[in-house]
Amino acid sequence: MNHLNHQCDPASDEAAPERLSDQAWLTQVFRENELAMMGYATHLLGDRDRASDVVQDTFVRLCKQPRQQVQDRVRQWLFRVCRNRALDILKKESRMKTLDDANASRQISRDSDPVAIAEMTERYENAQGLLASLPPRQQEVIRLKIHGDLSYREISELTGLSVGNVGYLLSTGLKIIRNRLATAE
Predict the structure, then answer these.
(1) Residue 82: CB atoms within 10 Å
(2) CA distance 135 to 131
(3) What is the separation of C-alpha 105 from the centre of its chain, rounded to a whole number of angstroms?
(4) What is the pTM of this model?
């Protein structure tokens, strides 16, 4: 095999990264790092399927990066993104952790008083009704903040509203709901 052809062959392990097309470079990076990243992500998450999703997401993000910004440190970049994504998933799951029946039966109820539970349920339903009575844009902003735990900037980027407008909609909407709840009591 001609040495020059060998260097330009994207399937060659010895091809100089700077001589490869972007697609061939990505293929080489994927081939060289996928298994190690799968092992790492599986270790962090304890689940091969979720690890596979994280690794796939990491490579999708790599495809969106300008090659010249990551090429010299691509392995470190991949593992940092993979780690951060896995930790984000773990953090989200810990907030959403549900109890299985066996664990739930062992938990001590914080509100064993049926009256207190009924009052809390009624307050929740009232708050949901009041939220539904707000204008749709205000509802969306409040739901993104409360349910999505998004920052004002993230809500701004998602909705196209200014950060100041997001803050105003949140503040006024929550104030309306608080006032109406206080009046109803």
Answers:
(1) 24
(2) 9
(3) 31
(4) 0.46
